Amino acid sequence: MKITKRQLRRIIKEAIDPEYMREEIMSFAEETDADGIYALLDIIGGDITNFAGDDESSIDAAFDVIDKHVTGSYPEDLAYIHQELTNAGYFG
Length: 92
What we know:
Layout: H1 5-16, H2 18-31, H3 34-44, H4 56-71, H5 75-87
Helix pairs in contact: 1-2, 2-4, 2-5, 3-4
């Protein structure tokens, strides 16, 4: 697998700065649709059944759970979440 210079810089920055990953995850959560929110909930281990539906209140409640989880996460957890989103094709 070949890694570009841009990807290498990003990997190094992510390894050094967990706050960068936290900001990128939350930016994704703010900008994505319901499917992206539910994919992120699945990655962090949230119970998707509590937020069934595409209505605004369900999405807002799911976002609040994600925000609370990501804000309190350790760097290793942030790296895992970020990597899973990358593997799923949401990042980079």
